[in-house]
Specification:
Layout (H helix, E strand, L loop, with lengths): L1 H6 L1 H22 L13 H12 L7 E8 L7 H15 L4 E5 L16 E8 L8 H12 L6 E6 L1 H7 L5 H18 L2 H25 L7 H31 L4 H28 L7 H32 L6 H10 L8 H12 L1 H16 L7 E2 L11 H13 L7 E6 L3 H9 L4 E6 L6 E8 L6 H18 L3 E4 L1 H35 L3 H26 L4 H4 L7 E2 L2 H31 L2 H28 L7 H33 L8 H6 L10 H9 L5 E6 L2 E6 L9 E9 L9 E5 L5 E6 L5 E6 L3 E9 L2 E10 L4 E2 L2 E3 L4 E3 L2
Parallel strand pairs: 5-10, 13-19, 13-20
Antiparallel strand pairs: 1-3, 1-4, 2-3, 6-8, 6-9, 7-8, 11-12, 13-16, 14-15, 14-17, 17-18, 20-21
Helix pairs in contact: 2-8, 2-11, 4-5, 5-6, 7-8, 7-9, 7-22, 8-9, 8-11, 9-10, 9-11, 9-22, 10-11, 10-21, 13-22, 14-19, 14-23, 16-17, 18-19, 18-21, 19-21, 19-23, 21-22, 21-23, 22-23
Subcellular location: Cell membrane
Family: Belongs to the resistance-nodulation-cell division (RND) (TC 2.A.6) family. MmpL subfamily.
Organism: Streptomyces montanus
Length: 825
């Protein structure tokens, strides 16, 4: 498929452009139909809501609030009324406004505070907030605030008002893409190579968002799904393209033609991308364990975007590589390639030095990493789940100002009243008991309709206060049962509390599901019990530390003023589920990328220290670059103006940064050094029953070379997808040992195609092999003793060295120079 897309690049590009513009046209024609509904079956707030629907048909329009305050006199003064009443009348006459409740009418007396300094009016639109035209909302805001003068403040609050405070759509995305572009340019040094991952991400996210928008007409999809789909789509789209482009550029630098390099990159890194994308989708699907209908649409939107991002990476990307040819390299690299020929790409000096330091000091580095993560995780012990409201908006916003004015004039609980709904029974007795309950500021009962009475209860504390939560429990557990009336506690504040309770109760099952799934995937991929167990522990550590950062910022308020993120409050109840899903998927990507290289080295050498050192040195740069891009994209959503988006962005940025820069770069390799060969332990009975899952394909050349090793009778032993040939003794049982290592030039470059012969002291050949492209080799030794190991390669003279082999494998690296073969070890 990669070759076809490369050769038919214009067709592939036109198909993707057609899909993007076709979906764009359909989306603009159909519009959106997002449904932000929380379905919490079998909860008290849902029963209250059902009773209210029975008695009071649901209003179709959104209700917002106009609040004003005077410094001197009262709001009843003629000088104030003469400015406010004409503004309210003008608002009421606007097309799209259904009703305006005026505090200066006979029924509006309760809308003026006791001291007469603050009053409010309610503006009911003809449609819900998401459907109200922004131009109309802006006209309402401008008309109301035109009434301001010295000593008279006018502020507005509500969902429709919140929408016009948001920065222009796309600002956060553009900033994130720009930051990612800088990182890509520094990593590649090429403008064209930088653009390719960004184009892939734009096509993946664009088609994903437009498809989700169309799906919102046939199923319930919350608006939050579009935000999270953009977050994860940009991150994985750029990262997946980064992995493939890096492998493609490496192939060209090593002398491959651009087409063959692209095919090889898609056949190796492309397979890893398919595996990684699948794990992200599986992790997202884990949200279904929560059994919350609100999250079903989130799973649909985010998973669809990830799937389309992966599809773009494996089809559109090779087409773009075909259009670019060698221009995917920088000019300097192209000139050097033309002048000196193919080169061997090596890990950078910094990566090699760090990897060596981890090997030398695993205990110190592991201890330091654990301490850092533990300190960051401490705030998670005080985690409170809840919901944000306009009281968490930035202090300068009109919605926050209106919220504070209402709290000042009518009490903190006025912004989140409770609704006690009773169907029959002694409503007056219930009202009396509620009024005498501690924590209740005001109680008012509406006339019964169809036997249903709604009692409005204003707490003395704010909607996000722990005291308000305790009041809800007191009403449900003590006041209502003692009254004997069948009643339920509802309202936005009660719904938020129930949602947080349900989420907290089901969260352990969700965590167990995704951790268990990750364990099984890594068990099959690496055929080890310790590697997936280590990964599971690391995922839990990363989750705890990232939530600790989230609590410190948004619940404790540390740094909120610096970021301009408003006021502290509880953590949104749905955020742990979404963050854990995304963190699991992304950390699986990094774990697979890191450990697969270690596993490859382990299969070749059976030297755990070397495998961990080489794997970390050769993958840390790409992992850190990919993580840095993710962090830039996620942090950019702080600029969205939406507290929920900012919370998700900072939480995910912290999770990815801690996972990549501390866990995968320090703690994981340090732990693997300490565990030694136990990393790769798997019981024989389990090995036989596990299916074989190849993240990357086995090299054909390796198979051909393995078949050529026929000088001594051998048994083929599968080992993680790579076949070693073990000598057989006279009885046909596996016996003897092996000599293995790497063939390198004097300057440390791997030498592929070198022929190695193992000879007895008398000159009889026992085994003959050819080194692989990375310089690795394995020769079989039928019995312990001293032998001659001879190596030859084009442009190198043949030399031999004595090697003494016992019953254990011997690691022996060969260094080729102009006139000798010498041992590195």
């Amino acid at each position: 498929m990669a070759r076809w897309c490369y050769r038919h690049r214009l067709v592939v590009l036109l198909l993707w452009l057609g899909a993007l513009f076709g979906l764009g046209f359909a989306g603009s024609t159909a519009g959106t139909n997002y449904a932000d509904t929380f379905s919490l079956p079998n909860t008290d707030s849902t029963r209250a809501y059902d009773l209210m629907k029975k008695a009071f048909p649901e209003r179709s329009g959104d209700t917002d609030t106009v609040v004003w305050k005077v410094d001197d006199g009262t709001v009843r003064d003629e000088s104030v009324r003469s400015r406010i009443e004409p503004a309210l009348a003008a608002i009421g006459e606007m097309k799209g406004v259904g009703e305006v409740t005026n505090p200066y009418t006979a029924r509006g007396g309760a809308q003026i505070s006791e001291n007469g300094k603050i009053a409010y009016a309610q503006v009911t639109f003809a449609e819900q907030a998401n459907s109200v035209p922004k131009e109309l909302v802006q006209d309402v805001v401008d008309t109301a605030q035109d009434a301001q003068r010295g000593g008279l403040r006018v502020e507005l609050g509500g969902q429709a008002i919140t929408r016009i405070q948001e920065p222009p759509t796309g600002t956060a995305e553009l900033v994130g893409i720009a930051a990612a572009a800088v990182v890509l340019f520094l990593a590649f040094g090429s403008l064209f190579a930088m653009l390719v991952p960004i184009v892939i991400a734009v096509f993946g996210v664009g088609t994903g968002l437009l498809s989700t928008q169309l799906l919102s007409h046939v199923t319930n999809v919350p608006e939050l799904a579009s935000l999270l789909a953009t977050l994860i789509g940009l991150g994985v789209g750029i990262d997946y393209a980064l992995f493939i482009v890096t492998r493609h550029r490496r192939g060209i630098l090593r002398g491959m033609k651009p087409e063959e390099a692209a095919v090889a990159a898609l056949n190796t890194s492309g397979r890893a991308v398919l595996f990684a994308g699948g794990t992200v989708c599986i992790a997202l699907a884990g949200m279904l364990v929560m059994n919350l209908r609100f999250l079903n649409g989130v799973v649909i939107g985010t998973s669809l975007t990830v799937v389309l991002s992966v599809l773009a990476a494996v089809t559109l990307l090779p087409a773009l590589l075909g259009l670019l040819g060698t221009r995917v390299l920088s000019r300097r690299q192209r000139r050097r390639l033309a002048a000196t020929g193919p080169e061997r790409e090596q890990a950078s000096g910094l990566a090699v030095r760090w990897s060596s330091n981890v090997q030398k000091r695993p205990r110190s580095i592991a201890t330091l990493a654990v301490v850092v993560m533990a300190v960051l995780a401490l705030p998670v012990l005080s985690l409170r789940l809840g919901a944000t409201d306009q009281g968490n908006h930035e202090a300068s916003s009109t919605t926050r100002q209106a919220y504070d004015l209402l709290a000042e004039g009518f009490g903190p609980g006025f912004n989140g009243p409770l609704q006690v709904v009773t169907d029959g029974g002694d409503a007056e007795g219930l009202v009396s008991r509620i009024r005498s309950t501690e924590g209740v500021a005001q109680v008012a009962a509406a006339p019964a309709v169809r036997g249903v009475t709604v009692i409005q209860v204003v707490p003395t504390t704010s909607p996000q206060s722990e005291q308000t939560d305790r009041l809800i429990d007191t009403l449900r557990d003590e006041v209502i049962p003692d009254s004997g009336a069948p009643a339920h506690v509802g309202g936005v504040t009660a719904v938020s509390k129930d949602f947080a309770t349900v989420t907290g109760d089901r969260l352990p099952y969700f965590i167990a599901a995704i951790i268990g799934l990750g364990f099984l995937l890594l068990l099959v991929a690496f055929r080890s019990l310790v590697v997936p167990l280590t990964a599971a522990v690391m995922n839990l550590i990363a989750a705890a530390a990232s939530f600790g950062v989230l609590v410190a910022v948004f619940q404790y308020g540390w740094g909120l003023d610096l970021f301009g993120l408003g006021k502290e409050g509880p953590i949104n109840a749905y955020l742990p589920v979404i963050m854990l899903s995304l963190l699991f998927g992304l950390s699986m990507d990094y774990q697979v990328f890191l450990v697969s290289r270690m596993h490859e080295e382990w299969v070749h050498t059976r030297d755990n220290a070397r495998a961990v050192r080489v794997g970390l040195a050769e993958t840390s740069r790409v992992i850190n670059s990919a993580a840095l891009i993710m962090v830039c994209v996620f942090l950019a959503f702080v600029l969205s103006g939406d507290p929920e988006a900012a919370m998700a962005g900072i939480g995910l940025a912290a999770a990815v940064a801690l996972d990549a820069f501390i866990l995968r770069t320090a703690l994981v390799p340090a732990a693997m050094h300490l565990l030694g060969i136990s990393n790769w332990w798997l019981p024989g009975w389990l090995e036989k029953r596990l299916p074989h899952l190849a993240v990357e394909p086995r090299e054909e050349r390796e198979e051909e070379e393995a078949e050529a090793r026929a000088e001594v009778p051998h048994a083929r032993v599968p080992d993680g997808g790579v076949h070693a040939r073990v000598p057989l003794d006279k009885g046909g049982e596996a016996g003897g040992s092996v000599v293995h290592g790497f063939v390198r030039s004097a300057d440390g470059q791997p030498v592929g195609g070198a022929v190695l012969n193992l000879l007895t002291q008398g000159g009889r050949r026992l085994d003959r092999v050819t080194s692989l492209a990375d310089g690795s080799y394995i020769v079989a030794v039928p019995f312990p003793g001293t032998f001659l190991l001879a190596a030859t390669a084009p442009s190198y003279a043949a030399r031999a060295r004595q090697v003494t082999v016992s019953d254990d494998p011997l690691v022996y690296d060969v260094e080729l120079e102009a006139d000798e073969v010498d041992a590195v070890n």
